[in-house]
């Protein structure tokens, strides 16, 4: 396939401008400083945090004006040019979102980019909150069993750093990624293209460490490196908010397929959708924090999740950062895409998912660009994609299971389910003589 020379010239010109510009660090710019966390706990956990949004609005306004001028310079209606416009708009939207930090408009712009808790899938009836509540209900149904997992010593931050660094060093081809301890971050782990930062006093379960590898390194860092390595489209190292749903869905899929997505982790992802919904309905940071504490979350974990939803918006409620509402939606969309494309054995098209930070809707255009020699194959592949011989059979089988009615199966085992339900202890199980423990996460 060939692409018109005029289109190629515009791709090169606009792509170079996007690549040379400094990527906006939205999440870093709206993150709460560590001292806010310490003041909150020192004051007794009963006062709304005071957040000062230090936003260079003049600089952002200049950047937005430059990008709008660049957007207006793209001439033509070829699909590749439409995709190019989308990428320019993504940078404009990210800058406009940051520009609105600390205002009610921030939440409106956030919802337009990421959706909200009550946003619907593809215009249907199912909403993000519906998926979250379905998963929460399913994950609770574990009963009281004698079988239990052995206790494990958690990894400290240094051990996680050494583990991730060793795995990065063993990767082929080599991935230029530094793993460091950073006492300034508020989250347990913050990952970028060239560095993964770990909070020094944080601890991690073994499954959590494995999940971080697949989520942060094998997805986010990997796609950024693949994008930066594109000779003519290096701007794909940073896709902007328009790619977030796909990128997070891809990262959660990597956890799921590697069997490192635990009950606790998936429950927490679903809970964050509920937090977004609560904040959209007016809940404050304190309301979210207390809700999580009442449900058994630790003090720091409750703080982390409540501040994730309130960062950039209003701590008093009604104007949250809605990014956390799109993780499960992204997983659903990525899984559906893989199920459909892998049925045809289309490995090249699946590889396009990791050629940079892209959105699912980009795949058709990216396939044309690769066929024309504009886009190169990704240099780095995640483990789930390298294991092609096991990936295709998985989706081949699940594609058949999609059409199976499990009603008769449940009916066949109805007596077993009834007996198991009647055997459960009443209450929280403290007085039970059974050796098992509740397994709900």
Automatic annotation (TrEMBL):
Coiled coil: none annotated. It comes from the Bacteria. Its cofactor is Zn(2+). Keywords: Hydrolase, Metalloprotease, Protease. InterPro entries: MATCAP. The keyword Lipid biosynthesis does not apply. PANTHER family: CHROMOSOME UNDETERMINED SCAFFOLD_67, WHOLE GENOME SHOTGUN SEQUENCE, PTHR31817. This is Flavohemoglobin expression-modulating QEGLA motif protein.
